[in-house]
Amino acid sequence: MVRAPLPDADGVVGTPRAEVVRDSVSPAGVRLTTVEVTLHRFVLAELNTHRAFSRNSASSRAIPVQRQLDTVLHDPAVPVEFGANQRGMQAGPPLTGEERERAEAGWLAARDAAVAAARDLLDLGVHKQVANRLLEPFLWQTVIVTATDWDGFWQQRCSPLAQPEIRAAAEAMRAAFAASTPVELAVGDWHTPYVRAEDGDLDVETRKRVSAARCARVSYLTHDGRRDLAADEQLYERLVTAEPPHWSPLEHVATPADGDGPVRGNLRGWRQLRHVVELDRAPVDA
Which PROSITE patterns match (predicted)? Predict the structure, then answer.
């Protein structure tokens, strides 16, 4: 079996990667950064424990099974290392040489078994929300993360005590964060991830809706690889009119707080689109 892991931005294969997709700073000096990270799916839960983050990720319920099969066959997520078994949460020294090769072969054999089972379910007509679950341990996961406070995450997940896969992702995120320079925004300006210059001169309300939709999709493009503003608008409407609404993608879109009243949510010094829309839709007491 040939391991074909995901290349990162530097051309190094087999490691998580991260890039800043929007970086802003408010008049009060509070930096708001949105990072897109691709990491091992099996450590996603460790990213999701950080309550300071707004986050969305590509859903196994939305991606066709055949596309996931192609991904897991050509770009399988393989552990960064196979640490030796010992007591406690941290592994011992990583296996090397023939032992490492045997461990990796075992991992990929499990991948092949999962692929065969997922294909069987696909042939039976089982929905992707079930069939794709079998493939998740061997998949990369792309997540968009927006936050104002990162230090706790760096301290915990860049630590030598962290599992190597989440540590590699956190270090990639920290490097992207350090290399980025935030853009100054005034009160009334909006932090809009995934809205780009090639989208043209969009008015602010359109930019907010398009940004939220693309954050939900975790991509500038549609699932079939197109830039489609009409599809973005339609997705936004589905998000906010669903019962219950899907609010989380609107958390990445934010404007500097103007100091008039308390700020809701997890972004210090910023007012999130989610709470603006929720307030607008709240019933008015008679």
Answer: THYX
3 close to 78: Cβ distance less than 8 angstroms: yes
The C-alpha atoms of residue 120 and residue 195 are separated, in whole angstroms, by 40
Amino acid making up residue 238 = R
pTM of the model: 0.89
pLDDT for residue 10 is more than 90: no
Extract the tokens encoding 101. Answer: 């090769």
Answer yes or no: is pLDDT of 162 > 70. yes
Give kind and range of the element (H or E) at residue 272: strand 270-272
Q: Answer yes or no: is pLDDT of 275 > 70.
A: yes
Nearest to 115 by CA among 99, 97, 136: 136
CATH code for the domain defined by 17-183: 3.30.1360.170
DSSP string, 194-256: T--GGG-S--HHHHHHHHHHHHHHTSSS-TTS---HHHHHHHHHHHHHSSS---GGGGG-EEE
The ranges assigned to domains in the chain are 17-183, 185-281
Look at residue 87 and give its three-state secondary structure. Answer: coil
Average pLDDT of the residues of the chain: 89
Burial class (CB in 10 A: 0-12, 13-18, 19+), 224: exposed
Beta bridge partner(s), residue 270: 256
pLDDT above 90: residue 1: no
Pairwise CA distance, residues 143 & 158, whole Å = 18
Q: Would you say 30 and 184 are in contact if contact means Cβ atoms under 8 Å apart?
A: no
| Tens-place pLDDT, residues 21-42 | 999 999 999 999 999 999 999 9
Please report, to the nearest 10 degrees, the dihedral formed by the alpha carbons of residues 175, 149, 47, 224 taken in order: -70
Sheet holding 31-40, edge to edge: 54-57, 140-147, 31-40, 17-25, 183-184
